[in-house]
Every structure is written in C-alpha cells, then in structure tokens.
Amino acid sequence: MARINFDLDVLRTFVTGIELGSFARAADRLGRSTSAVSAQLKKLEEQAGTPVLRREGRGMALTEAGETLLGYARRLLELNDEAAGALRGGSLEGRVRLGLQEDFGETLLPAVLARFARAHPKVRIEVRTARNQQLIEGVRNGELDLALAWETGERTPHMERIGAVAQCWIGALDAVPSLGAEPLPLVMLEAPCLLRSAATAALDRAGIAWRVAFTSAGLSGIWVAVGAGLGVGLRTPIGLPASVERLDAERAGLPMMAPLGLCLHRSEAEPEAVVERLRELLQEGVAELLESPAIR
C-alpha cells in the first residue's frame, strides 16, 4: 500500500478555513484565490482517500474523517512551525520581559509561551499581568521589553496597533437586565480600569442610572459575580467562561460600544533577537485569536 504524504501547505489551508469558519476568509488570510483554495481542498480529499468536508447550508462542515484529520493537521503544522523557528533561532539565549492584560492569560499566553519555549529553551521569559497604565509605564521605564495593552490614545515611542476587539455587555446565562426605576447594577474591576470608565461614561451619555454592585481585583471575581446574577459587566469576548454570556445590547436597552484597539508596545526601536522573535509569535497568536469565530 502506497504511503500518504500530506502536503503541509494544503493542511494549513484546511486548518485555517475551519478555524475562521470560512474558506473564503482563509483564502484572503493566506493570500490565495478562492479557486486555488478549492483546488487544495480537492487535493486533500484525494490524498485522504475519503471526503473530509460536507455541505451544510451555504457553508461546509467536517465529516467524521475530517474531524480526525483536523487534529493531526494541527499537530503537524505546529511541529513544522516549531522546527522552522528552531532553525531560525535555535541558538537564542537571554531574557524577555513581557507584560499583558489578564484577559490574555488563559487564551493567548499558554500557546505562545509553549511554542516559544520549545523552540528556544535557553531563553528565560518573565511575564507580568497588570492594568493598562502599568503596562505602558513598564515599557517606558525599561522594566518591560514588550507589552500587549488596550489602545487608549496614550502612545509610546515604539508601538503598533495589531487589532481591535469588540466591547460587549455580559450577564448571567438567560438573564436580560431590567432597566426600570432601579439603577443598573454593575460588576466591575477596581478603579482605575479602562472598561469600567468606558461603561459608566456610556451609561451616563445614554441617561441610564447605574450603581456599582460588585467590585473585584481580578477577572475571576468578575466571572463569579456576573454568573451569579449580581449585575452586568463590560468586557471583551476574550476568555469569557461558560457561566456568562454576551448580551444583545439593543435588546437589553444598553449602549452600543465601539471596538477596543489592541497595541503591542516595545521598549526598543530595534530589539534583541529574542525579543523580536517573541513579538512575532505574539502577533501571530493575536491574529489567530481575533479571527476565531468565538471572538468575532
């Protein structure tokens, strides 16, 4: 029986299309035409010897064989990318000091750090989770090499905007807040907090009375309080637990919120190779996160 040698480029198109929920978006992301992507998917099914996709409405869904292949494809691509990274910078040594919002601690950080550590085992990474202003000050003071922070209009000498995330009102599952005579109960992080300020300012502009019903020093307290029905909060879709859900702002009578920009700050114009490599991985990780169906 002839061996099957899957084409990694074809597997990357397959995985990207599934993760983005659309092969048209995958074509745009990978810089290919839709006809080229269709040809790759046809080639993949020929290599697999069985259908991996089936039509579902106007889109495509995985077959049972496709679900099996998807897991292996992700592992093959991750190993390929790690090998390429190791060859490009296997001798990297030193230290990188990274700062980021708590929001990314469970969704972005583990995957990025795992990839970096496997490819560059001699590099020591120091991670600090903090509020926005602390992260920016850390970069300015030379205490952090890189910082992933929300866009506030406050600039640092070497920063780049790498995306935007929706701001959404959140509440307990199947609970719609009542905007009656009582002030709207809010669940918020301790001040100063960018989203806390954005929420109260938007409610004030809309003429909606509010009160802070619960304050927490960290996100875990926010999830517990909102999930318990103590009030509503304003967050992004990143890292939302199953105990809370995004509210339909129009249905709930709450203000529509503009997306929140995301910036990557660095302390040096031309950072050391270890810092630059981590910056590349962070950008890749953020792009993948922001294009996932759960965040869009």
Description of the molecule:
By secondary structure, this protein is an alpha/beta fold. It folds into 3 domains: 8-88, Winged helix-like DNA-binding domain superfamily/Winged helix DNA-binding domain (Arc Repressor Mutant, subunit A); 94-165 and 261-291, D-Maltodextrin-Binding Protein, domain 2; 168-257, Periplasmic binding protein-like II (D-Maltodextrin-Binding Protein, domain 2, 3-Layer(aba) Sandwich). 43% of the residues lie in helices and 22% in strands. It has helices at 8-20, 23-30, 34-48, 64-89, 109-119, 132-140, 194-206, 219-227, 249-252, 273-290, and strands at 53-56, 59-62, 94-100, 123-129, 146-150, 159-165, 168-172, 184-189, 210-216, 233-235, 244-246, 260-266. The strands form 4 sheets. Strands 4-3-5-12-6 form a 5-stranded mixed sheet, with helices on both faces. Helix 2 (23-30) crosses helix 3. The chain is globular, with a radius of gyration of 22 Å. The model has no long low-confidence stretch (mean pLDDT 88).
Layout of secondary structure:
Elements: H1 8-20, H2 23-30, H3 34-48, E1 53-56, E2 59-62, H4 64-89, E3 94-100, H5 109-119, E4 123-129, H6 132-140, E5 146-150, E6 159-165, E7 168-172, E8 184-189, H7 194-206, E9 210-216, H8 219-227, E10 233-235, E11 244-246, H9 249-252, E12 260-266, H10 273-290
Parallel strand pairs: 3-4, 3-5, 8-9
Antiparallel strand pairs: 1-2, 5-12, 6-12, 7-10, 7-11
Q: Which terms summarize this structure?
A:
globular, 3 domains, 3-stranded antiparallel β-sheet, alpha/beta, 5-stranded mixed β-sheet, Arc Repressor Mutant, subunit A, 296 residues, D-Maltodextrin-Binding Protein, domain 2
